[in-house]
Amino acid sequence: xxxxxxxxxxxxxxxxxxxxxxxxxxxxxxxxxxxxxxxxxxxxxxxxxxxxxxxxxxxxxxxxxxxxxxxxxxxxxxxxxxxxxxxxxxxxxxxxxxxxxxxxxxxxxxxxxxxxxxxxxxxxxxxxxxxxxxxxxxxxxxxxxxxxxxxxxxxxxxxxxxxxxxxxxxxxxxxxxxxxxxxxxxxxxxxxxxxxxxxxxxxxxxxxxxxxxxxxxxxxxxxxxxxxxxxxxxxxxxxxxxxxxxxxxxxxxxxxxxxxxxxxxxxxxxxxxxxxxxxxxxxxxxxxxxxxxxxxxxxxxxxxxxxxxxxxxxxxxxxxxxxxxxxxxxxxxxxxxxxxxxxxxxxxxxxxxxxxxxxxxxxxxxxxxxxxxxxxxxxxxxxxxxxxxxxxxxxxxxxxxxxxxxxxxxxxxxxxxxxxxxxxxxxxxxxxxxxxxxxxxxxxxxxxx
Length: 449
Description:
Elements: E1 7-11, H1 16-22, E2 30-33, H2 51-65, E3 67-71, H3 78-89, H4 96-103, H5 105-115, E4 123-125, E5 142-146, E6 156-158, H6 161-167, H7 172-192, E7 202-205, E8 211-220, E9 223-234, E10 241-246, H8 252-268, E11 274-283, E12 288-295, H9 303-310, H10 314-322, E13 339-347, H11 359-368, E14 373-376, H12 381-390, E15 394-403, H13 406-420, E16 430-432, E17 435-437
Helix pairs in contact: 2-3
């Protein structure tokens, strides 16, 4: 039976989004547009890419293709492009200025200082431009990240002037890539939110020391609705994500503070419709919440975690919102697990080249763990070298699993990792009550791709 629902457009539809929206293909037929930043020749579209021209081309196709809604969870270009297209077509969507305010890291800090200063951290722009000497008057350690970036690129703590200088010393090729990634956003900011200033800068933040969490929710008719909280766990002694777990034991006071801060900030920037993800630290002993950043989109890596545990599919929520319908009216699916996690496989040795699972290994994994989701990220030597410069490690795979409880999830992770020939990341930290206990200092990081 053919779907009677109008077609939707999904921008930059890859990885979790590709599988997430495919779950609803019968009810919500979709078309996709955009390119993959991580593969060639697709990423050649970066050359002279312009968001306004991209949106205008889509607008001219909309009537012919039957599109009546647009959505995207792509941080670099998609969320902003979807907001621009929705505005252009008169479709439901997140306000363009709200997306800009969230994604411009320095401007977001300024707004947060006005509406929720207790949840902010010390911050300032790095005074030197790309290629200029690093100033001498910086207090270390300091967390450094681009004013506009995604996937944790160039975001890390530095402990002295030499480390900072090395981080912001770019080759001609690196500068070309950085400018192509930032310039499409820069042009829209200049036209729509000029008070934010240039995005071609680096931001310095005072480091935090606490457990890291993600509040997921959405606005409908101007009302904030919570979905849940996911905990982020790092590889010990690093700032690299090891695991995202749901549910987690965030104290009720921390959850209430996160909701309050999210409501104040998002209301201030005009965010009244759409999914959002708030990354934050929470120190239970001090009852202190520190905002890392606001993402004006779904954290799509978490979508199936909620589906497994709560019966809520965030991709279905996104589609309902894109069509202007209330996601709360959608019946929940029957939960299939007590806990779920997204395990991240990383190498911290630049010379290492972890083998990708063979077809036989993948088939065995699918047979033994039918609900598992495996993503492999094979890269060339040059790409791995750039990852270590920009990220400090090489992420070569991600595995989604669920279990009855924490012990069952750990055992399943170890068994599944053995089948694909990778070291089990679950064995590196303790799983406790559905969340991870982290005992090392961490610093702000952006949500993994």
